[in-house]
Predict the 3D structure of the following.
Amino acid sequence: MATHPIRGVALAGGGPLGAIYEIGALLALGETLQGLDLTSCGVYVGVSSGAFIAAGLANGLSPKSMHRMFIESDAADDPFEPDLLLRPALGEYVYRLASLPGLLAFAARQYLEPGGSAGFFESFSRLAHALPTGVFDNAGVGDYLTQLLSGSKRTNDFRQLRHKLFLVATDIDTGASVPFGADGWDDVPIARAVQASAALPGLFPPVEINGRFYVDGALTKTLHASVALRAGAKLLICINPLVPFDARLAAERGRRNEDSIVHGGLPSIMSQTFRTLIHSRMRVGMERYRAQFPDADVLLFEPERDDFEMFFTNVFSYSDRRRLCEHAYQRTREDLRRRHSELGEALGRHGVTIDDEALADEHRTLLVRGHRKNRRQPDAFGHTTAKLDETLDRLERLLMTHAALKRDQQAS
């Protein structure tokens, strides 16, 4: 394990959509940043779905490998099946259902007790204890990771990693953040820590570890980048997949007609509220890091505020993973081009440079007909095929944008 970590990676959450975005972003960074091996950094921090990806990087799984496993899963030896996230929490249902007769009896006695002052709703409010703490069971994710990390040169034990790995969860009974992988918290299996960090309240039940119950680490902070900075990271690459949507900015840039998010109903309102809260909190944290760690460079990569595709795609969507991963890949490449001077200066302080030739190559894409990664071929036929694939993919994106604009016009 590295004793003086210099470079680090911090990954926020965002459900399956967030993990897909992070894989696409990491692929773009990995092929563009020379002198930075994303699987050999000194320290990794993961929160929620970001914990899943961080655990892979710390175990030597490259972004290309994770792209094959989770995005091009039909071609992988050990593919990730999305139905692992959608298995009903049957054990939780049975446990809560078994408690219902006792709760009913207690409520009835309290309500019918002669001279009692408790009303109907007060007496029977106790029945809420019979509601499950989660709809789905994410134990399948833990099982998948346990098997994946048992492979050659991989480990499910924090203490056997060559690099520091911190997976942050929240103790539901105290509200305290717990960095699994830190001293005193490194005896927990990595797969179990990922499961706890990704246990979004309401969707998945809290995960029990050593008699305590843990849920999503994003409840307290978005990135927990300070964990990596305190561990000694001097260059920290951060990826945050979820940002609030700016409808006015999207309209000004011609990407979408300005239309209030209110028209999307409760899901859009809740999504915007959640994203705004976690993003504003993260921004405050980024400013604090600059003051507390002046000798460190913290570089944040995230979607733009007018990225309607990232906002209007369901956070738990997995069916469009190829298109969304490509979207993240291309948006990150655009971000690198736009911030080239700023990023180049910061990266240069740590011996990392931007590969301008790779960044300028407009033919690079993750999409190819038949779902195989595009590689430009030296022969004329291969070059023509690559150009055709690229044109078809661009046409597909334009048609999707046109359809979205047309729906907006019809709704207005």
